[in-house]
């Protein structure tokens, strides 16, 4: 089998049921983990053995960062949660990773996602940097589909 080169990302496209759409430069937190449960048992010869088995599954929150624009979609989505309208805020969606040629190279589908945190840019008129906004998404599961 030929060895494949690792995928190189240039940017991430995000779409949540057509309402929150954007291009992001950074995406972190894609992953899941299980708690580790230890229990004591006896081995075949009566010796003391500690067994480790997977416990509860936990989905990591996803953090997306982009340069701030005049788009208000993330702020409007977060406002639903602030107003207690969580059922309305829950969205299924997709994060797509694009390469430098703008071709999709990986895709993750999410279910029941909602914005648990939204951070606006830090203001500093003395530097010459792009102002960044950050969105943290909580969800109930995802899968990599390509």
TrEMBL record:
InterPro entries: CHP02241, Phage_T4_Gp19. Pfam families: Phage_T4_gp19. GO terms for molecular function: structural molecule activity. It comes from the Bacteria. Signal peptide: none annotated. NCBIfam families: conserved hypothetical phage tail region protein. This is Phage tail protein.
């Amino acid at each position: 089998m030929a060895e494949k080169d690792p995928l190189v990302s240039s940017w991430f496209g995000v779409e949540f049921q057509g309402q929150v759409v954007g291009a992001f430069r950074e995406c972190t937190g894609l992953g899941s983990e299980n708690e580790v449960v230890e229990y004591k048992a006896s081995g075949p010869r009566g010796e003391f053995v500690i067994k480790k088995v997977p416990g509860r599954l936990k989905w990591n929150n996803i953090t997306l960062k982009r340069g701030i624009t005049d788009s208000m979609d993330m702020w409007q989505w977060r406002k639903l949660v602030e107003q207690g309208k969580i059922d309305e805020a829950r969205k299924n969606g997709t994060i797509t990773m694009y390469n430098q040629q703008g071709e999709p190279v990986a895709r993750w589908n999410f279910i029941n996602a909602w914005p648990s945190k939204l951070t606006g840019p830090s203001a500093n008129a003395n530097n010459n940097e792009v102002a960044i906004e950050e969105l943290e998404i909580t969800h109930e599961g995802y899968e990599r589909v390509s």
